[in-house]
Amino acid sequence: MTSIRAADGDQETSAVRTRGWAASVTMAATVFTVVTAEMLPVGLLTPLSSALHVTEGAAGLSLTVTGIVAAIAPPVLPALLGKLDRRTVLSALMVLLAVAAFAAAVAPVFAVYLGARVLMGISIGGVWLLAVGLARRVVPEHAAGPATSLIFSGIGIASVLGVPAGAYVGELAGWRWAFAGIGVLSIALAVALRRYLPSLAAEQAVRLRDVGAVLRIRQVRVGLALVALIVTGHFAAYTYVRPLIEPHTGPALIGTLLLAYGAAGVAGNFLSGALRPVRALMIVAGGIGLVAYAMPVLGTTLAGSLVLLVIWGFAYGGTSVSTQAWTHAAAPSAPESSSAVLVGVFNGSIALGAFTGGQVADRFGTTTVTWLPAVLATAALAVLLANYRTAARAAESSSPKVSSSFSGE
């Protein structure tokens, strides 16, 4: 009888483990979808702006609007959601994303499309909020780290593959079908979340004083400054990558070039995961800065555009994993608070980058937007160098044998 009970217990444990990993994979797919939805206009900017009769700079504002709403939503939603089961909330957020995507797909005018992007921002911010710390609730404690990495791998993969996939669909069937595809995928994931996630009771929300405590940590502030510089600079130019390279490559090759960017980004994502955060972020900032300085000169041919996009994708592909690693190392005892702050700054930087790039593109021409990431990436490298020296001196004064996650040793 004892052996039978033990066997039953092992089977039950195995079932729980399997369900937990299925939930993690489903959440990774959910994160991939919301990030792809947010970034989708990047690969569709030219046909989208033409169809809705606005400038490319104005069309790029749709990223700004979504980023602002996604940054504001996380601290506001917990009070509105109350004690609702978080599994139900996640499913509802994906249904909301589907409604927003379908609305964008049929939008007759820019105002309707912009309204759809506001709804997307609510969904994206809510999913970000609930994804943080979810792994530890669906898998055994010893597997929480790998499961968290799996869930957030959806960010990096979406950032580098979602846009080219959308561009391909847009090229083959039209930009509206790309948004419709997001709608279909969101409905499927709403069902999958109900199927694979366990019931998730509401936890205590991150309080403002918790956020304030995290912000008093110097390395957290440094990390957020790096996020603001790198992500703002990146999206100032990347939002307008299609009109930037299309005159030299032609519309038929946009999807292929962005796919090369995406493949390089996946490689950069995995490489950055194996490096210390400071070294990974040096590669990120250095690569983006190099491309930004070289684009006006070398990006005027198909071959030049391809090479620069591969370098750009490889560099930026490591941004999500390296900034998450940085904030975790800076505040290991407060992962929820540090992640909430990181999400807000990341999405706010997307909004600021898209807005600033749009203003520059409309006033001075699309080709000038690359100077923004050039300056901001250089500033990020300067911050990294100054922080490296400070952290190395602190580690040396405390103990010659102590290495710092922020000194790269």
TrEMBL record:
- Keywords for this protein: Cell membrane, Membrane, Transmembrane, Transmembrane helix
- Can the keyword Metal-binding be found in this entry's annotation? no
What PROSITE patterns does the entry give?
Answer: MFS
Q: Which Pfam families match?
A: MFS_1
What's in the GO CC field? plasma membrane
Subcellular location per UniProt equals: Cell membrane
GO molecular function list: transmembrane transporter activity
Record-annotated membrane-spanning stretches = 21-45, 57-77, 89-112, 118-135, 147-169, 175-193, 222-241, 253-271, 278-295, 370-388
Look up the coiled coil feature and give its residue ranges.
Answer: none
Q: Indicate whether Membrane appears among the record's keywords.
A: yes
Domain Major facilitator superfamily (MFS) profile per the UniProt entry, residue ranges: 22-391
User: What is the recorded membrane topology of this protein?
Assistant: Multi-pass membrane protein
**Could you identify this protein by its name?**
Putative MFS family arabinose efflux permease
Q: Which organism is it from?
A: Kribbella solani
